[in-house]
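stuck on whats below:

***
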Amino acid sequence: MEDICVKDDSDLIERCIEKDTAAWDILVRKYTGLIYAAITNRAGKYSISLPRHDVEDIAQGVLISIWENSKLASVKNRKDISCWLAVVSGNYALRYLRKRGDKEVLCEECYEEAIASRDEETASEIEKIMDDMPPKEKLVIELNLFHDKKYREIADMLDMPLATVSSHIKRAKAKLKISLTNL
C-alpha cells in the first residue's frame, strides 16, 4: 500500500473524494477512535451501553455510507473534519438505536414528536410545564425546540456559556419527557 504524506485533512479529503484507497485507509486509521467515541457517547446519552460488536457495526456503517455516498464532498471545513465526523457518527448511532427499537430512544422520539405535532392536549401540557420553568430555562428550551436553534447559537444569542445552555436544555427536556410519558 502506498503511503501518502498528509499535512492537514484538506488534502486527505480531496484524495478520498477522488476515491484514492490509500488516502481512505489513512482516514479510517486516523478517525476510527473518534467515530467509536462519538457512537458510544450518543448511546450513552440514553444510558445505553453498546457491546463492542454493535459499535463496530455502526462505525462500519458510517464509513461505508461516507465512502459510497461521497459525503466528504459536502464537508465545508476540510482542514479538520473531526467535528463533522463526530456528528455524522452520532446521528448514525441514533438511527441504529431507533431501528433496533430501543425503548428510551423511542420514548424521547415520542416526546419530540408530540412537541412537533402540538396536538391540543399535549400543547396545553407543554405550556403548563414550561410556565413552571425558570425564565432562562424556558427561553433556552423554546429557542431549541420551537425555533430550531442549536446549542451554540443559543449560547451566542444569550451570551451564555455553552455548558449552561446544555444544562438548561437537558433539565427542561427531562421535565417535558416525564410529563409527556405520563400522558
Observations:
- The first helix runs from residue 9 to 17.
